Amino acid sequence: MSTRLARILTTIFVLAVVLLPIYWLVSTSLKSNREITQEGTLYPHVPTLDNYVRLFTEKQFGSYLTNSVVVTFFSVAIALVFGAMGAYAIARFRLPFAAERKVGLFLLTLRIIPPVVILIPVYLLMLSLGLLDSWLGLIATYTAFNVTFCVWMMESFFREIPVDLEEAAMVDGDSRFGAFRRITLPLAAPGLAATAIFAVLVTFNEFLFALALTATPRAMTMPRGTATLIGRIDTDWASMAAAGVIGALPIVFFALLVQRHLVRGLTMGAVK
Amino acid sequence: MQTGMQARKYRLQGAGLDLALPYLMLAPGLMVVLGVLVYPLWDGLRASTRAYRYGSPISNVGFQNYVQLWSDAQFLNSLWVTVKFVALSVSIEAVLGFALALFCLHEFRGIRLLRTVLIIPMVITPVVVAILFRLIYASDAGMLTALSEAMGGGGVQILGNPLNAFIGLVVLDVWEWTPLMFLILLAGLQSLPHEPFEAARVDGAGPWRVFADLTFPMMRPVLAVAIVLRTIDAFGTFDQVFVLTRGGPGEATRLISIYGYDTAFKFQQTGYAAALFVTIGLVVLALAFSAIRLLRRVDAS
User: Is A219 on the interface with B (CB under 8 A)?
Assistant: First the structure.
């Protein structure tokens, strides 16, 4: 009986710790600035959606959202295609000098280095190519990061699929690439999904490179735009809270939708 | 058996165009990586040996930037703050995550809700996590102040005080990343074999004995991997600090990534900042590789 009580209490405690900050964000976003600073209420006494309306009419949150969606979509899609092909090559072929294994190890090493290490030279590169403050500059950068990740993750999924199936397809007249495309790829679909989901999360949330590489609503992503808003209006808590809600909503919704795949992707590398 | 499989793989490679296939499949990804990651890495190394003025290189200074780092009080301070931050956050997360995973190992009502809710902190955009905590810590609009006033107290000062701001940053990190630790360790616990635990139960071992003699030793590799992953990640923490405190007050929360960013983009000391980042990269790589070697040795024994 006492274990049950302990369980209930612990569950309630954990839920409260996780959800209270989120409650406060949402609650603040529904108050007016006067209510926030002068009355210090614990819940919105006069709820208002003004803060949200302002984000889209006075600030450029529509643009930020569009930029984020476009950049995330393209960089994840391209990285998935390139990454799946690379991962397959590493998982299945034996090249001279074990080149495929060296490439795999090399990509993994690149993944370990914190991205901040190449922030300056990537900035200089985009500057010299005239790609600062553009979709293309961000897409190129994120695609590269996502490729290292996709190759690493997809490789283990391909290894789990038996070679026999491809052999059978090739006996039936498929080319090697045809066997990959029609047999292996569909079988690896759950792995592809988990990889894509994880890449979407990381890319949508990325801030550091967006901070250095973009400067105007033309290319600023959600995290970048949200941070800018905060810099400029230090005490406009209401807008800040609404921006936080808008910034977090798409990705939290997405994560809860694909929860099962997500947990698999998050924990896979560590447990194996 | 091994050679048989090997031979089959060679045979699979076929002839003609198929011989080029592995290279064709590797090429697109590698080209992007070489262009956008490897070239900049090399360029960064080159920049780190130069002095810059107004964003353009003016002279070669060799290793002087690297030498200068170790007599730069601000660099040394940011390194110390980072080490403190990483050590404190990751160990708290490991302990809490492990405890929570053990707690959730036995199915009970509400566990699914708990697991779903625990996903939220680590998927929320880090910038927004920082906003969450600014709204909690703010002395005028903050949740802590509101709670304290509701209970008859006064305003609460967090981000204006060096020690409190640092603790506030650690609390943020623990809130955000304990769930990841929890998920990894829970997956690890669920993959442990059942037999030893049943044998221990038959022998009448108490829960503490089971934990000390079975669970913990068997979980050590997973725990080590989780800690290494989090440590590497925490070393590069930037977004949350940038939005929460911008490194302040003073230098209390100025992590090395923030100092590097300011050196490069605020003070325009491109070469010096590049040397700083190369140094961080080497430290993290060394950390990762020694961790991997350590793990291999644990696996072997």
Answer: no
B71 shares a domain with B32: no
Domain, as residue range, for A116: 58-271
pTM attached to this predicted model: 0.86
The amino acid that residue B238 corresponds to is F
Residue B55 in 3-state DSSP? coil
Same domain, B108 and B135: yes
pLDDT digits (tens, 9 = 90+) for A133-165: 899 999 999 999 999 888 888 888 888 888 887
CB contact (8 A) between residue A110 and residue B278: no
Say which residues have a Cβ less than 8 Å from residue B264's Cβ, sequence separation at least 6. Answer: A119, A120, A123, B270, B273, B274
List CB contacts of A133: < 8 A, sequence separation 6 or more. A213, A214, A215, A216, A218, A219
- C-alpha distance from A46 to closest chain B C-alpha (Å): 16
Find residue B50's DSSP bridge partners.
B60
Asked whether A201 and A259 are in contact (CB, 8 A), the reply is no
B39 to chain A: which residues are within 8 Å by CB?
121, 125
The helix (H) or strand (E) run that includes residue A228 is helix A222-232
Task: Identify the closest residue of chain B to A33 by CA–CA distance.
Answer: B141
How many structural domains does chain A have?
2
> What is the value of ipTM here, to two decimals?
0.87
Residues B86, B88, B91, B97, CA torsion sign: negative
Give Cα A194 distance to the centre of its chain: 12
Q: Is A118 in CB contact (< 8 Å) with chain B?
A: yes
Q: State both tokens at B270.
A: 């491109």
